[in-house]
Amino acid sequence: MGSSVAANLASEANDITLVDTKTELLDDLRDRLDIQTVTGHASSPRVLENAGIEDADMLIAVTNSDETNMVACQIAHTLFHTPTKIARVRSASYLQHRELFNNNAVPVDVLISPEQIISSYVHRLIEYPGALQVLDFADGKVQLVGVKAYYGGPLVGHEISTLREHMPGIDARVAAIYRRGKGVVPRGDRVIEADDEVFFIAARKDIRAVMSELRKQESPFKRIMLAGGGNIGMRLAQALEGRYQVKLLERSKSRAQFLSRELDSAIVLLGDSADRDLLLEENIDQMDVFCSLTNDDEANILSAMLAKKLGARKVMSLINRPAYVDLMESQESIDVAISPQQVTIGALLTHVRRGDVVAVHALRRGAAEAIEAIAHGDSKTSKVVGRRIDEVELPEGAAIGALVRGDEVLMAHHDLVIKTEDHLILFLLDKKKIHEVEKLFQVGVTFI
Amino acid sequence: MHFAVIQRLIGLLLMLFSTTLLPPIVIDILYQEDAGRAFYYSFMLLFAVGLLLFFPVRKQRGDLRLRDGFMVVVLFWLVLGIAGALPLMLYESLAISFSDAVFESISGLTTTGATVLSGLDALPHSVLFYRQELQWLGGMGIIVLAVAVMPMLGIGGMQLYRAETPGPVKDNKLTPRIAETAKALWYLYLGLTLACFVGYWLAGMSAFDAIGHSFSTVSIGGFSTHDASLGYFDNPWVEFVAILFMFLGGINFALHFAAMRHFNLINYLRDSEFKMYATVLLVISVVSVSYLYINSVVPEFGQAIRQGVFHAVSIATTSGFTLSEFSLWPVFVPVMLLFASFVGGCAGSTGGGMKVIRVLLLIKQGQREMMRLIHPSAQVVVKLGRQPVSDRVINAVWGFFAAYVAVFVFMMLLLMLTGNDQITAFSAVAATINNLGPGLGDVSANYASLGVFDKWVLCFSMLLGRLEVFTLLVLFMPAFWRK
């Protein structure tokens, strides 16, 4: 985890020191990335000092051990007064007690729990049958959903601008359209065709209604099979078992026994997710969702493909390697490929980028970005505050989709005036323009 | 086996028990009746025997081993059964045999409530009080009492507590110290008894009857001071108080303890055993009332409710109070209630039977087996509430169930061997092993008509039920006696 964070941050011109106990790993990383490395235990004050924590603006503790991460934050706080401390904490028993994490107890400013992030990502996908991607903005008040348009959807074959006539009272905005693998600028006069992948943004409560405009309303999911009972599988099963019929496949006997003790109504099955007979015996053909969540990309892909072949309605797979993600999404054999790194890094970077840009999510296939940015300052120091939306000088291919003001969700109409502290959600077809957007939201140097 | 330590303990416990003969003496003096001498002689004799056992080994203070615990408990219940029979035998006007006296005494101490006596209303108050008192002592367990009041005497230890308290999981103490746990249990017990007494008294019983019945209600015993049992009073309020306190007595005292400590009733509702206990009682009450009313066994609806609910609670919690000759009803309801008594009270309560939690675990284990048939590769865990139950406990419960059924069948056959009919044999063994009391057929009113051999079999059955089979049966294992 640390290495991918480092890679992402280093490319954004931050100075990074990576601490790990494994020298070989560090050597390899130092060759590839422009970072400093220190070998040693991450919670040891001496090691941290060697790594130059005294000058650091931020400590990101993402080792496998919750305790090490928390102690490292504690040490950084007490001995070195590090301003911002981010820790990866996975154990639910710590996460339940948020009051633990303040400067008087365990000084952690931001908690990152990759398993939680990924499982809630998958959970959102399961909540909206038919969705290819669901992204949260402004704490989930606004969601961005990608769906494939089908014949039979009321809006299919019509211009985007008719959306409002179809659904009076519901405010939604089409953010991006992919047609045959290529991005199409979603102007109002574009006609939505069948098989388009349409990304739209709306308030959380309106998502379902909009989806039903683009495709026949799918019956909600009921039966879900998860393959792989690691931390992600377990969390997801716990989150789902109350509302869905969940079956969880796990290969290791002791882990399966542990899971069966932890889970209430989910059925824990001991066996291999690529075991055809087992899948058939457990009615894979009746499953609404099959989700492979092990650490092994190949196993995930193959078992998901097998499940699809055996009749599962929708299959999802966790895929770590970016190359595989693209490969799988362009094939029809797996419905949704989830890249855990992309999901987690997005969430982590949200916290690393202080101030202006709070979230950058790559849309499916990576060609477009969804950005959540906060407008600071006033009409003098900021290039956005105090202006109407159509007055903001956006780079080519960028559009403002929605605006969150306090608890209110506003769709971006051209005459809306941006106020300070508004959260703006923007889309960018061309990734390279992201710095221009970031610049747009930077306020004058005097304003911190 | 530390025989010297065991002997010392038995001596101590016997001396402790002998003091429980003092209240009947006082009552006899108050009512100026003729039974006081029997109690007085018994007291002297038991105290002397206790002292004789205790004195030579008074300095033996070795720790009790696990096996010694079983030995002490079983031995003590046997000794106590016989010692408790002493006053009944010494009271000449009663004129009962040794077997009858022992049967009555064990029936009292095990909170069974089966009696060989009739014409209760004519007996001296002291004898009646004594019977009620035996039940009260047996309810929470006299050894638990000893653990509570005599920590300084070196009677302590989980071994005794574990061997006497009912339920499949015997290691949960309410407080860190065993003596404190025992004390807490007895305080609760005392408090419930007091509340029950007040309830009965307000409902219109005489003070004597109220005390006596509160003893046998909270202990889920079932002895009464009248031949007609609670039917004697024919008072809906008395029945209400009885139902309430039988219900409370059948609940795990750990739950009462938690409720008292936190001033919160939510613990009851969170407990799966309690939920099942309440559900079972509710269901059989409704079934009884409906059956009685629809089939015009009790044609008046109000009466049907009184009779149906009271008997359902009384029999299912294994108390054994009656309002009428319920054994004469059409056979469905009495037999259903007898089967309900196998479920009995909750673990850690004063009720008998197999305990609700065991039945609950048996059901869950059955479900698990079916689940395994449907999903052969599924890992299924039996859970109570949200807590997984270890396979060790479930195996123990199955073992318990098997042993329970086996000894039940064995004793039922023994009773049939001596010429009893099937209903009598079945209900007598069920009523004694579940510590229930009244049976059906020949034993519906009392057990006087049975033969001597039958009575001893049933004494054994009552002890088996009270000590939860294994504590007693373990003594018959050769391995127990091997060094």
How far from one another are the termini of chain A? 31 Å
Helix-strand makeup class of chain B: mainly alpha
Largest sheet of chain A: 6 strands, parallel
How many strands, what sense, and barrel or not for the largest sheet of chain B?
Answer: 2 strands, antiparallel
Strand fraction of chain B equals: under 5%
- Order of helical and strand elements of chain B: HHHHHHHHHHHHHHHHHEEEHHHHH
Average residue-wise pLDDT of chain B: 86
Count of distinct strands of chain A = 21
Shape of chain A: globular
Total beta-strand segments of chain B: 3
Choose one word for the global shape of chain B.
Answer: globular
**Largest sheet of chain B, order of strands side by side?**
2-3
Description of the molecule:
- The complex is a heterodimer of chains A (448) and B (483).
- Chain A has 448 residues and is α/β, with parallel strands linked by helices.
- Chain A has helices spanning 2-10, 23-32, 45-50, 66-80, 92-95, 114-127, 163-166, 207-214, 231-240, 253-262, 276-281, 297-309, 322-330, 340-352, 434-441, and strands at 17-20, 36-39, 58-61, 84-88, 110-112, 131-137, 142-148, 172-179, 182-184, 197-203, 223-227, 245-250, 267-270, 289-292, 314-318, 336-338, 357-362, 369-374, 398-405, 408-411, 423-428.
- In chain A, the strands form 5 sheets. In chain A, strands 13-12-11-14-15-16 form a 6-stranded parallel beta sheet, with helices on both faces.
- Chain A starts with a helix and ends in a 7-residue tail after the last helix.
- The mean pLDDT of chain A is 81.
- In chain B, strand 2 (383-384) and strand 3 (387-388) form a beta hairpin.
- Chain A binds chain B through residues 250, 253, 256-257, 259-261, 264, 267-271, 278, 281-282, and chain B through 371, 375-381, 383, 386, 388.
Task: Briefly summarize what is shown.
The complex is a heterodimer of chains A (448) and B (483). With 448 residues, chain A is of the alpha/beta class.
Keywords:
heterodimer; A: 448 residues; alpha/beta; six-stranded parallel sheet; five-stranded antiparallel sheet; 21 strands; 24% strand; globular; B: 483 residues; mainly alpha; two-stranded antiparallel sheet; 22 helices; 3 strands
